Task: inverse folding
């Protein structure tokens, strides 16, 4: 079964659909089947998009077996209250937040390596366009 750690229970409770998502997931080593531990399952994500940032929750992808930092999926839940409320909720519930760097030129999120221009962080698109 795929994604066992993600959604544990879905139920209808009119007028709502309730989806339970565990905050932790069982992690294991592909090199040692006896090595297991609990790890975080959810991460808060903030993506700058000009003056309208996108933020919410994503699933963590365990990369410890490659001795790398976790990766994550796209948002499975987009938060529509204020960004301050989102940060407060994450802090209160001990959910880590990752905030993407923002391009100083086009104001978009930077998802990979970037350079620094005269104004600050520069995404590869702006660098390719020759912006300074």
Result:
């Amino acid at each position: 079964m795929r994604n066992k750690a993600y959604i544990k229970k879905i139920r209808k409770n009119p007028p709502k659909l309730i989806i339970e998502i565990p905050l932790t997931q069982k992690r294991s080593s592909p090199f040692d089947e006896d090595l297991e531990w609990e790890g975080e399952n959810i991460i808060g994500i903030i993506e700058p998009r000009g003056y309208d940032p996108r933020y919410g929750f994503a699933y963590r992808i365990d990369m410890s077996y490659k001795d790398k930092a976790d990766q994550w999926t796209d948002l499975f839940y987009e938060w529509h209250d204020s960004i301050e409320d989102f940060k407060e909720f994450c802090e209160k519930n001990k959910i880590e937040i990752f905030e993407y760097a923002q391009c100083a030129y086009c104001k978009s999120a930077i998802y990979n390596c970037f350079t620094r221009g005269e104004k600050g962080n520069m995404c590869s698109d702006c660098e390719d366009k020759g912006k300074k």
